[in-house]
Design a protein that fits this description.
Elements (H helix, E strand, L loop, with lengths): L1 E13 L4 E3 L4 E2 L3 E17 L7 E4 L2 E2 L3 H17 L10 E8 L9 H15 L6 H11 L3 H4 L4 E4 L12 E4 L6 E7 L9 H11 L3 H21 L2 H20 L10 H15 L4 E4 L6 E6 L3 H10 L5 E5 L6 E2 L1
Parallel strand pairs: 5-7
Antiparallel strand pairs: 1-4, 1-14, 2-3, 4-7, 4-8, 5-6, 8-9, 10-12, 10-13, 11-12
Helix pairs in contact: 1-2, 1-3, 2-3, 6-7
The protein binds (3R)-3-hydroxy-3-methyl-5-(phosphonooxy)pentanoic acid.
Length: 328
Amino acid sequence: MKGYARACANIALAKYWGKCDEELNLPAVPSVSVTLDALVTETTVERDASLKADEVTLDGALQEGAAGRKVTALLDLVRARAGVSPEDTARFARVVSVNHFPAASGLASSASGFAALTAAGARAYGAEVPLEELSSLARRGSASAARSLFGGFVELPAGVPGDGSLSARQLHPSDWWDVRVVIALVTRAPKAVASRDGMRETARTSPYWSAWLACAPGYVHAVKEGIERRDIEAVGAAMEASTFAMHASAWAAVPAVRYVRGVTLDVLDRVEALRRDGTGAWATMDAGPHVKVLCAGADADRVAAALREASGVIDVRVARPGEGVVVT
Ligand code: PMV
């Protein structure tokens, strides 16, 4: 009747941007990520016969409206998988989710959130669901969540329209490679455009959309090969190329879908300066203005110190490759 799960967020080293099937939430391009130990979501799902609907609390705040409906939609998939009938008295659940992220950072928590929700929900509804299938279910909430079921280095292939079985898979465990992701927070404001909307508008109006689709698999190939060889220069260069191509495709949407701000560019200058001075550091951004910097474990302190000095940076966190979902 009750399930608990803990999942980490992840950062894409080769980006997912755009869907080939909105209904099944299937990505149009493949992506590769590393799971991050420093960004954790804990979620409890408890069935309760006294409830007439799901009750969702996120970081202490009751979620009504769209956010609550997204949780219920995911739980509906879990309930269907578990064979819970509409007449079941304990059909609905109390969901309590807590993000252990830098306070109100605007960092995307949907990946860890939907991963934890799916795993805790399956436990609460008594379904023995293999990890791959949990990943496939979590993907329906947020495609990046499919990757957060797994630890270490993870691939999510591109989808095939109409085939809802797509799941992520682990490429290498967390101890494969001693790298760090240094996260520079530049604002506490929530993101301006949801990734779902940004992707849709990019696909609908950007003249660079087809170029993005053509290039994305090449970045994935280069990132996978680089991880295999533990070649941080190769992975860093491909990650930056993927990041800028993704953002360029979005900038060319009409009107532009733009996530970076002035302070983002200042941090990017810092990262380039670090490289000029001989420290291996490479930057990436997602659907927001924060910058995440990939570096070797041995360089993390130097990179973090440089980012702390950058004007406009309000917090810096260092993450290691993290573990996959834990369920009890
Ligand atoms: O899964 P979503 O809807 O949160 O989209 C994630 C998109 C990016 O973060 C920009 C890239 C990625 O692969 O995580």
